[in-house]
From TrEMBL:
Annotated source species: Rhodoferax antarcticus ANT.BR
InterPro entries: 2-oxogl_dehyd_N, 2oxoglutarate_DH_E1, DH_E1, KGD_C_sf, ODO-1/KGD_C, THDP-binding, Transketolase-like_Pyr-bd
Leading EC class: oxidoreductase
E.C. numbers: 1.2.4.2
Encoding gene, per UniProt annotation: sucA
Any GO MF annotation of the entry: oxoglutarate dehydrogenase (succinyl-transferring) activity
Functional summary from the UniProt entry: E1 component of the 2-oxoglutarate dehydrogenase (OGDH) complex which catalyzes the decarboxylation of 2-oxoglutarate, the first step in the conversion of 2-oxoglutarate to succinyl-CoA and CO(2).
Protein name: 2-oxoglutarate dehydrogenase E1 component
Alphabetized SMART domains for the sequence: Transket_pyr
Keywords associated with the record: Oxidoreductase, Thiamine pyrophosphate
Length: 956
């Protein structure tokens, strides 16, 4: 008996394989494909036999898509009783053809996109894909008129001939839209896409007014570029020419989103087409854009930025009401804006209590090469479905120029078939669309929004177009791409093609020209091209930043809390419910904290942090703390999340004391992030940029690891205010300290932050006591100043008893930018003042006690920038007979704060005083990796702080 008949015998034996049970069979087969041992033996034998049905070429194949198999079961059931077996030769052959039809449908769903008509330049021939040819499945010419029941397998007619089915498949999957969605594991989502695509065969059916509106948007897109090209010859603008359908797509997305209840949209994009979006989507006045080209726009910022990095906000009307649009500012690091946008969206969602993203929508616009090439995309996508970072799905749009950033050979700028292949890891469906078919682009955008609103997941529309003028308007891409640019030179333009199409449909021979003339007239007078833009609308969810503008870092701020409040809060955050069984080590931590709350023992770092957070949330300031180990703390000092040791499920049994401080308190969120620095820090910066009233903290696992997020620090945190006027109060906690842990676990690169510090753009602090971390965290919110706060937090000091603080330091006082010497010294005997920052103070203090040096004062600089000149000078003047001032640091001489603070120290020294350095010698590495060498270096620098000045000496 043939193997095929054996399969049908198995079918007969399993009489429950009738059409009504198709979902059950489908699930069973899907489980089998994932893990054959996960299904009962009977099912496994059946599916094993099915896998080896001979293909037309006689080979055995295991690559049988499960959906066609399930549909085949249902089809067989429709042909008669579920116990009927097709055992005759004719029936067996017909059954084989029915299964082959399902395989053909599956092939088009899986790889039909590779045959789609996507390239406007038509540079390449279709590749040979045998699976898309009916002959591959053994069909002959005579079979094309056989009629098959397709009601349960292909959305369309109940029955279709093979010829009609083949035409329908090619229209659906191989025309202007190439859809990829079959890698989705959720069957409901796959069927959703099949219904959308196959029911209309991927062909839009728009009325006359919609078609005219699409042409109007294409006209606006091309009109602006042509106007700028003739008026500002040779100036960089990163033209959208060749990708004009993108503007029609954006318009459709915004209007449809508004009709679905979306009230805020945040857009992130790099350069190409940005000016077009500003004018034709967000409604920036063309006259204002022209002023930037003419260099007559007001210069209101210390630095400013080029026009194609600028952000913008506006409110536009939609069928569902006003929608607020925000285009994020973006540097030349292209995709780095993506996590910033996601963070901004999450802040808006939280402010609206909108966890499902029905009111706020993120849109990210990418270039093809950047999307495939920049790692921040993978990191950002990895955040998409995590609890602390989800934004309920992002609509991604790729302006695919088919050439990337440079004019290199396209074979060299990615290793994947599509630039979008990265999204398959998060199961985001993709629609590749021919940019010369604007109606298809618009329809794809409608589906993308529908999918996002339905399933709260990312989705991608990849607009295949071209780049008419090269990377920028000063580029000559034909130097390296002569064939492509010969094609481009012959291309009439998307607007012209579509205008001619509408003219052929009887919509008017001069319609396109009339629209273009009208747009040019609007450009000549510099008026709005988006109608109408709302100028007086203000949402109740808008944030008022005015209280935080034009503030000085020296403004007074009372951060102490009354004793009664301290005790009340301490009791609340150290009381663990009886229903929670903490680990014994955690219980010890909380028992100690309870004693600290009562004043029985000094307050350590973890309790100082917790009390700062508790006092803020009860005062109405939310706290958001994230990082790779933030719940527990990398060094197990925090334990903000208590894990019930008796719990039976992994997703239950946690207790967060800071979320249970008081009724009606502000939220406290502590998030263990994915193993990412760049995207997570970008996300938190974006969050803080839209919520000045939340203490937003990103904590590095080790301060060294902030290296992985350096572009966020450089381009946003350090310079965002002077470039773009964007005020931001994000806090970074960067564990820093030389304790013999090697080159990648010692330094938060203080020198890099010092180098970036100017224009009072940041606050750089290195607190050394529990009370100091308490006050600086409270100061960050209570003071009406929003500047990034960089805290070089300790490691060994977290449990160092000398770094603990008495209770009185929390109920009075404030953050000390300079901590005076705690030792009572006779000022007239002091000959040397040692100035330091951070952990090294405790080493120096211990050495002084051991040697009974009474002529050396030790001063701690707790705020490195803005440097506290007044406090420093006041302290230094206490020792008028000191002839030497020595800066001591753990870090190598070419690192740390030395090269920056030496100027500040010298400025405040007394006449005749000498300034010297004591620390490790210059090094290419942040720290040594040998424990014994570390100890030798540490001893030498501590000894040197009290010895004769060597090396560099500067006299006042």
């Amino acid at each position: 008996m043939s193997e095929t008949n054996s399969v049908y015998q198995a079918y007969q034996a399993n009489t429950y394989l009738f059409g009504g049970n198709a979902p059950y069979v489908e699930e069973m087969y899907e489980n089998y494909l994932a893990n054959p041992s996960s299904v009962p033996d009977t099912w496994r034998d059946y599916f094993d036999a099915l896998q080896h049905v001979p293909a037309v070429d006689g080979s055995n194949t295991r690559d049988v898509p499960h959906q066609p198999v399930i549909n085949a079961f249902a089809e067989l059931a429709k042909q008669g009783s579920n116990q009927t077996v097709l055992q005759t030769g004719a029936d067996s052959e017909l059954g084989r053809k029915r299964v082959a039809v399902q395989q053909l449908i599956a092939a088009y769903r899986n790889v039909g996109a590779r045959w789609a008509d996507l390239d406007p330049l038509k540079r390449t021939e279709r590749e040979d894909i045998p699976e898309l040819d009916p002959l591959f499945y053994g069909f002959a010419d005579a079979d094309f008129e056989i009629v098959f029941n397709t009601s349960n397998t292909f959305f369309g007619k109940e029955v279709m001939s093979l010829r009609d089915l083949l035409n329908a498949l090619r229209e659906t999957y191989c025309s202007s839209i190439g859809a990829e969605y079959m890698y989705l594991t959720d069957q409901t989502q796959k069927r959703w896409w099949q219904q959308r695509l196959e029911s209309v065969r991927s062909k839009p059916s728009f009325d006359v007014e919609k078609k005219k509106h699409i042409l109007d948007r294409l006209t606006a897109a091309e009109g602006l570029e042509r106007f700028l090209h003739t008026k500002y010859v040779g100036q960089k603008r990163f033209s959208l020419e060749g990708g004009e359908s993108f503007i029609a797509a954006m318009d459709e997305l915004i209007q449809q989103a508004g009709s679905r209840g979306v009230q805020e949209i945040v857009i992130g994009m790099a350069h190409r087409g940005r000016l077009n979006v500003l004018v034709n989507t967000l409604g920036k006045m063309p006259a204002d854009l022209f002023a930037e080209f003419d260099h007559t726009a007001p210069e209101a910022l210390p630095s400013g930025d080029v026009k194609y990095h600028q952000g913008f906000s506006s409110d536009v009307t939609t069928p569902g009401g006003p929608v607020h649009l925000s285009l994020a500012f973006n540097p030349s690091h292209l995709e780095i804006v993506n996590p910033v946008v996601e963070g901004s969206v999450r802040a808006r969602m939280d402010r609206r209590a909108d966890p499902t993203g029905r009111q706020v929508l993120p849109i990210l616009v990418h270039g093809d090469a950047a999307f495939a090439g920049q790692g921040v995309n993978q990191e950002t996508l990895a955040l998409a479905q995590t609890r602390g970072y989800t934004t309920a799905g992002t609509v991604h749009i790729i302006i695919n120029n088919q050439i990337g950033f440079t004019t290199s050979d396209p074979r060299d700028y990615r290793s994947t078939l599509y630039c979008t292949d990265i999204v398959k890891g998060v199961e985001a469906p993709v629609m590749h669309v021919n940019g010369d078919d604007p109606e298809a682009v618009v329809m794809a955008m409608q589906w993308a929004l529908d999918y996002r609103m339905e399933f709260r997941k990312d989705v991608v529309v990849d607009i295949i177009c071209f780049r008419k003028l090269g990377h920028n308007e000063q580029d000559t891409p034909a130097l390296t791409q002569p064939l492509m640019y010969k094609k481009i030179a012959q291309h009439p333009g998307t607007r012209k093609i579509y205008a001619d199409k509408l003219s052929a449909q009887g919509l008017g021979a001069t319609l396109g020209d009339d629209m273009f003339k009208a747009y040019r007239a609007a450009m000549d007078i510099g008026r709005h091209t988006v109608d109408p833009v709302l100028t007086n609308f203000k949402s109740k969810y808008a944030v008022d930043w005015t209280p935080f503008l034009n503030r000085k870092w020296t403004d007074a701020c009372d951060t102490a809390i009354p004793m009664a409040e301290w005790r009340r809060l301490a009791e609340k955050i150290t009381t663990i419910p009886a229903s929670v069984s903490p680990h014994s080590l955690v219980k010890k931590v909380y028992d100690d904290r309870a004693a600290m709350g009562r004043g029985d023992i000094p307050v350590d770092w973890g309790m100082g942090e917790h009390m700062a957070f508790a006092s803020l949330v009860v005062s109405g300031y939310p706290v958001r703390l994230s990082g790779e180990d933030s719940g527990r703390g990398t060094f197990s000092h925090r334990h903000a999340v208590i894990h019930d040791q008796s719990r039976e499920k992994w997703d239950t049994g946690t207790y967060v004391p800071l979320s249970n401080v008081a009724e009606g308190q502000a939220p406290f969120s502590v998030i263990d992030s994915i193993l990412s620095e760049e995207a997570v820090l970008g996300f938190e910066y974006g969050y803080a940029s839209n919520d000045p009233n939340t203490l937003v903290i990103w904590e590095a696992q080790f301060g060294d690891f902030a290296n992985g997020a350096q572009v966020v620090i450089d381009q946003f945190i350090a310079s965002g205010e002077v470039k773009w006027g964007r005020v931001n109060g994000i806090t970074l906690m960067l564990p820093h300290g030389y304790e013999g842990q090697g080159p990648e676990h010692s330094s938060a690169r203080v020198e890099r932050f010092m180098q970036l510090a100017a224009d009072t753009n940041m606050q750089l602090v290195q607190p050394t006591t529990a009370s100091q971390i308490f006050h600086v965290l409270r100061r960050q919110m209570i003071r009406n100043l929003r500047k990034p706060l960089i805290i070089f937090t300790p490691k060994s000091l977290l449990r160092n008893k000398d770094a603990a603080s008495p209770l009185a330091e929390f109920t009075k006082g404030s953050f000390q930018t300079i901590i005076p010497d705690h030792k009572t010294l006779k000022a007239d005997k002091v000959k040397r003042v040692v100035v330091c920052s951070g952990k090294v103070y405790f080493d120096l203090s211990k050495k002084r006690e051991e040697k009974a040096f009474d002529d050396v004062a030790i001063m701690r600089v707790e705020q490195l920038y803005p440097f506290p000149h007044k406090a420093f000078a006041t302290e230094l003047k206490k020792y008028p007979h000191a002839t030497e001032v020595v800066w001591v640091q753990d870090e190598p001489q070419n690192q740390g704060a030395w090269f920056y603070v030496q100027h500040y120290i010298h400025e405040n020294m007394l006449e005749g005083q000498k300034l010297g350095y004591c620390g490790r010698t210059a090094s290419a590495s942040p720290a040594v990796g040998y424990a014994h060498l570390h100890q030798e270096q540490q001893k030498a620098l501590v000894d040197g702080a009290f010895g004769k000045l060597k090396g560099f000496v500067l006299t006042k």
